[in-house]
Amino acid sequence: MSQLSERPEKPVVGVSMPHESASLHVTGTALYTDDLVHRTKDVLHAHPVQVMKAHGRITALRTGPALQVPGVVRVLTIEDVPGVNDAGMKHDEPLFPEEVMFHGHAVAWVLGETLEAARLGAAAVEVELEELPSVLTLKDAIATSSFHGINPVMTAGDTEAGFADSTHVFTGEFEFSGQEHFYLETHAALALVDENEQVFIQSSTQHPSETQEIVAHVLGLSSNEVTVQCLRMGGGFGGKEMQPHGFAAIAALGAKLTGRPVRLRLNRTQDMTMSGKRHGFHARWKIGFDAEGRIQALDATLTADGGWSLDLSEPVVARALCHIDNTYWIPHARVEGRIARTNSVSNTAFRGFGGPQGMIVIEDILGRVAPLLGLDPMELRERNFYRQGQTTPYGQPVTHPERISAVWEQVRANGGLADRKRQIAAFNAAHPHTKRALAVTGVKFGISFNLTAFNQAGALVLIYKDGSVLINHGGTEMGQGLHTKMLQVAATTLGIPLHRVRLAPTRTDKVPNTSATAASSGADLNGAAVKNACEQLRTRLLQVAATQLGAGAADVRIVEGIARALGSDQELAWDDLIRTAYIQRVQLSAAGFYRTEGLHWDVKKFQGSPFKYFSYGAAATEVEVDGFTGAYRIRRVDIVHDVGDSLSPMIDIGQVEGGFVQGAGWLTLEDLRWDTGDGPHRGRLLTQAASTYKLPSFSEMPEEFHVTLLENATEEGAVFGSKAVGEPPLMLAFSVREALRQAAAAFGPAGVSVDLASPATPEAVYWAVQAARGGEVRRDGRTFDTGGEPVRTTALSHA
Amino acid sequence: MVGARITVNGKETPISPAAPHTTVLDFLREQGFTGTKEGCAEGECGACSVLVARPGVDKPTDWVAVNACLVPAAALDGQEVVTSEGLATAGKPGTPPTLHPVQEEMAVRGGSQCGYCTPGFVCSMAAEYYRPGRCAHAEPAEGAESTEDAEHGPNGFDLHALSGNLCRCTGYRPIRDAAFAVGAPADEDPLARRREQSPPAAVATSYIQEGSAFLRKDTLAETLQVLRERPEAVVVAGSTDWGVEVNIRARRADCVVAIDRLPELRELKVGADAVEIGAALTLTEIERRLDGRVPLLAELFPQFASRLIRNGATLGGNLGTGSPIGDSPPVLLALEASLVLAGADGEREVPLADYFTGYRQSVRRPGELIRAVRVPLPLAPVTAFHKIAKRRFDDISSVAVAFALEIEDGAVRKARIGLGGVAATPIRALATEAALEGREWTAGTVEAAARVLRAQGTPMSDHRASAEYRAAMLGQSLLKLYAQTKEAVSS
Lengths: 799, 491
What we know:
The complex is a heterodimer of chains A (799) and B (491). Chain A is of the alpha+beta class and 799 residues long.
């Protein structure tokens, strides 16, 4: 067992416990960025001037009328930027644009004594626009070759030979929607210039170091003049990885120019119309199977809707390509990725980061072709699982492939699937208007940032003379329980009770140059860094204890706050040990660091081993569909998921369940619609509020929901044998979509391939049912009066 | 004169200098009660849920959860509010507070992840915790029949209490576990005891800041007098519609008049030939006080928005705004309801079928108020309400269809069908009614009538549904009703 994965005696990791802030959450006393406004004096409020056109050049911007509005203090425009006018890392995202690139683009910001004054001021700003043609849909972008960024091609084997060897070849197209993050806390920042002339920003950000970097370059300052703190976020899901920077920069610019604290908090509609979302994709594919249903070759082109700027679209597309295989071996593959440039918000990271968009393509294909191959979808999936010694299309050996079938078999057993399939068949035979179906899908998700450099982390651990411990690390808390795990890691490594350890909010002046808390890597990276810092301290303390206990340092253990030498009853309490160490002038603080070993990635060849390991899981979902309306219920979900040896089981189960339901939301309910017509509101997001964009609520949660963590699943390459958990479970929700497809199929004759739009809203399911019945076919199910909505799926043809 | 004030967590707090349009949410946050969060500002997410003491249905006072983002602070003049901070019992300085039983269950079961929605969930859950009708089940007697199903816990907890709260992190399972684990309130629980005392009285309010006014009068006559003088005034009850206008569309009014506590609008009378429902009773009050007496209404209520909205929304409001996609009009049309309109010159009764005249237009004159809704008796024996929406809890209808049929000896004697979402106003499906009346209740009749129903109205395509789906669903709803009546017979 590796040193990184080894657990000491009586570890605090592995103990099931609630979130470290649970008591603060339930009493409403946990503070979020915007809660600090009430504690800060003389705050100014920022309001955006949004231009409600999809594309156009600004020919005039008059701020004078805004300044006449009582309470308006200042209007921030491009003229005010002392540094670089850019809010992104690709230098294609002007903070104050001269060209409106999407409907709702903010071109200026008004600062007011009250939010009401700032709002009225923003409404008074006059913007003149020379309107330009706009590209809104993926279909139009593809037709007009409107692309930007990289155009990677992943190849493995000989695709042509693979097709030549295939018994069955199918082609098809599939377009599926993106997803709004809908973190309950919208984007927020509070900036001030502090007593030391430092620009200090409280920001709801997953990436404080990058927020700091961008604020510094906008203000023309060095990074050592800017500090960013993130107390906690009310949800992030990737939406606060890149998107907070510009908002923080606006607040900081306002604070710098006025000398007063500036608060910027988007309301829900501003957040939804201005910030990026999960990329919707278009896929065109050709797949070949042998006579037994084993995949021989895949040729696919995935086009992501990048929106107006690149943001994270390039790595998102890279990850999509790296996950089109999911749990299936594809010996011959050619997969190309493209990024469409459209006049919409700049799409960004969202839990799974392209992984879901890659996987949905192969899961959709398997779901559609299973009836045509005459195979049960479960059987078809099983036949294609990776086996020992096989590699992914990008050349990484698949480690622990046996876990793909281990979680699958366990889910079949836990869910009593054999019996339930019989019960479902009997139910369906007796109910002409209601059908049930049960589908199982698995997930294999690569863990590590695709870009090797990001796989590093730092921590700062301080022990005070009274024996209390304060830990700082570079990760941010967005509800995923990272801080809980980090407390457990520190207590375990030092050998002390949890209550002696406290965690400070994430700040860029404690740990520099951090990576985003993203890619599910928060606990892996920061946990290893915290562990490293604690190990340095422990090594020093064991030396001190050894002298006190008259033993060799190698024979001393600290367990539950008491140091003992092996074979001796003599004890040294933690507080005494610390006091002694201080008197002996032993350093009681340590900076920890971690870099993930063994990664390599050739961006140009699109080959390498970008991932430290893979996370596995499987889900079985049973649904019931009402044939009259297409409405459905999720009756039962069973999940077995591989989190290695869990650092914190209650937290991990929470991540699995929450990820699953969020994934189910993306695939079934959450329906982003834009006005794609040529009317005056062209480019407007039609579903820009909670009343029109529906998240899963209590009525969508599975009526029965059983999550089991795979046992004896030690991951040698990660902290205390654990695995990442944030993103992979989201993709287990494909089981919901496939169950809906199968239930729709059950209304018709056997052997019919059923297309299902994504999201599979009740309406989409209704049209799928009608198609399965061979009746009224309405394939897109999506056209609406503003016109121009892309056709979501096209007929699958047997080539 | 004592200025307008609200008792927050036991402490009286003046509303001034808040503007009359300032919401309870913003007022609370300004006062430092930052546990109350804004997630959507339109009553959809429940992050701002707080408890309000209201006249009770089974006890003198009920603790009712409402969306603080929708209600103007001035509307709670003289009222008592409890927030998530107020549910916990403060400890000695430096020691943590004692958690409320609801908070304890939410905390230990992993009911919070990011924590942002949590205070709102806690308040909604606490309201259900104190609901007298639930408490009876909380510690069931030995051998008592369990009321448990997918939406009701073994402790009598009705999950619909949380239908207006959204969580983006947990997937809800631990929150359900917490909800289904809470017991009955302890005898000494101060909020449980508060239920036994009279509710805070309605307080006549005249809250005016910078020329803009929020007014509440004691009586209907005085209110009608104000409306005669200021016909431009916005009339609010639960403010569930107006609050959205203020927050999302930035509408401001010089004068807002509250009518939700007028005694003349809060009566519920079950007579020999009609049920008369006060227009300012909340949907929750109607639901609990009718207790299934009108089955079609009982079927409507759980599908009408969320519990948080139903705790404020009224039939008067749903009919008064005249929205074509309100959920009560199709039901009330099928029930052949009429409206009692009160003006300074007296009352008149208008059949609901004659009430709507165009998109958000009606025969109600300026200065008139809906005082009550009359549902004639006897009720049709076969009724159903079919709401087509993306989400089962708390969504807006794509289309809504209400049926009230009299089927005797296998034939349809009378049919009344109300439709929402298919035209500029809610409408009766008169052609379909004609296609059913006098005919045998058979598959043939129903299929023919369903074809007629599919062609009724002029449904549109929008982000909720396509016109084709809407039209299809009209016909499907009748086929489904037929299948259900046949299943009911055969089972």
